[in-house]
Write a structure and sequence with these properties.
Layout lengths: L7 H15 L6 H13 L7 H19 L6 H18 L6 H14 L5 H19 L1 H4 L5 H7 L41 H9 L5 H5 L3 H12 L4 H4 L2 H11 L1
Helix pairs in contact: 1-3, 1-4, 3-6, 4-6
């Protein structure tokens, strides 16, 4: 269920991203139906055309993910890029020009991963698929009653799409890697890709402890001078992630 901090569009795209990265870009019909039931159980009404649009979104994400799968820390990069895509669409209210698009691609390349002409095209497909949900936000709004959503996805009321449900896959965060040259691997933090980690290192930020200690002013300065994307640090909870990683060292 979406919370006050997480709008329905952000929650839906997060569920889709988690599915694509967990499945490593490949899934069968059973996995797809399990995903649909899981989304319904979160309180989303995705019947009819919305379910078809959701399938299109997964396919767009799949094309982008598999085209860039060789990129280091791609799972984290994918989550960051989808989050940034949602912010971009919301900031432009679903309408943008070519210069806006070029600036978005430039920001992704500076902060997250390098894009070829082909992978940039796949990224455009992801944006367009998310845009469909932004434009139809009333029909993807979280339902008021979570119990009603759960009843829709109960075994007794499910359509005969899948005979068995796979065991739930638990995603376990990898333990933080050891420091190299007195530096922590900042790419372990969701929202920081290799390119952005390098920029942070060049600015003197090399450890989880430093990120865990960021003040609101520090965050504002970083987003203005280095990240060029307002809201990312708090949205991805860099400070909270860094504190957890520091405690594990």
């Amino acid at each position: 269920m979406a919370t006050a901090r997480t709008a329905p569009l952000e929650e839906l795209t997060k569920l889709a991203t988690d599915f694509v990265t967990t499945q490593k870009g490949f899934w069968d019909h059973t996995a797809w139906t399990d995903f649909v039931y899981g989304v319904q159980n979160k309180g989303f009404d995705i019947s009819g055309e919305i379910q078809s649009n959701l399938g299109d979104l997964l396919e767009a994400m799949k094309r982008f993910y598999t085209a860039t799968a060789s990129t280091e820390s791609m799972d984290n990069a994918m989550k960051t890029i989808v989050n940034d895509s949602v912010v971009f669409i919301e900031q432009h209210k679903g309408v943008w020009g070519h210069s806006d698009w070029e600036e978005f691609v430039k920001t992704v390349q500076q902060n997250t991963i390098s894009l070829s002409e082909g992978t940039a095209g796949y990224l455009g497909g992801v944006l367009e698929s998310i845009k469909v949900f932004y434009a139809s936000s009333p029909v993807v709004a979280v339902q008021k009653s979570a119990s009603a959503a759960r009843s829709k996805s109960s075994p007794a009321s499910r359509p005969a799409l899948a005979t068995e449900k796979k065991a739930e896959t638990k995603v376990v965060r990898k333990p933080p890697p050891k420091k190299t040259d007195n530096k922590d691997d900042l790419t372990v933090i969701v929202g920081i890709g290799p390119a952005l980690a390098k920029k942070l290192n060049n600015a003197g930020i090399v450890s989880y402890a430093q990120i865990a200690a960021l003040s609101d002013k520090d965050i504002k300065d970083l987003e203005k001078s280095i990240i060029k994307f307002t809201g990312r640090i708090k949205r991805d909870d860099w400070v909270g992630q860094a504190k957890e990683l520091s405690q594990k060292q």
